[in-house]
Structures are given as structure tokens and as C-alpha cells.
Write a structure and sequence with these properties.
alpha+beta; 6-stranded antiparallel β-sheet
Amino acid sequence: MIYYGIVIEQSLKNPSILKEFEIVAQKQNGNWKFLLVSASENTLENQIEKLQDNMIPINEDCWYSHFFMNDAMIVVYQDAVFKTTTNQSDWNEVIQYGTKHGVPIEQLDFNPCTKEGAFKLFDLK
């Protein structure tokens, strides 16, 4: 089973960590470079740990990446990992954590959180 994820390159101290993932697509939006990555369910936990180790420290700026497969979603902050669903009604704890650490509420939409939505955003078939 494959998870897809959205990682913003600017959230990383060292973008070379991205070699841990398969980069499916990239998209520039203003100053941010969005990456659609994929990872095996079997290796994702280890990859998330490495990703967290390479994210900008939370005391400098709070960032997150998120990964999704079917109805499952994993939100990765620098110092916390939340396993939730793609259903917005299940995101209260994840959103509270982000706003507490300075992430604007409008950036906590976890969009896209489906393979179809991600492929549409990155213009993939």
C-alpha cells in the first residue's frame, strides 16, 4: 500500500532528505515549492522520523507535512505526529496544535488529502 504526501521544500533544513521518498511531482506556488511524494506503508514511519529530523526547528517556525492513503491521514509536525482520517470533523486536535504553534488557520486545510485531489493539484493523470 502506498501513501502519498505533501511536503513543502522550504520546511526543510536539508532538502536532500527528500531522496528518502519518491518524488511524484512538484509545483511552485509563490515562494513555496510543493512536492507530491509517495512512500510505502512499510517504510513510512521510518521516513517520517527522518523528515522530522530535517525540518526547520519548531521554535523558529512551525511547519507540517501530511500523508494520506484511502481514509487515513498522518500529519507530521516537527515534534508531533497525528494519525487521523481525511474527514475534517476528526482534525480538531491537529488544527489546535498547529494554531497553538503559529500556523494560520487557513493553512490547516490539509488540502489535498486524497490521491485524486493531489493528482488534480499537480496536473497528473
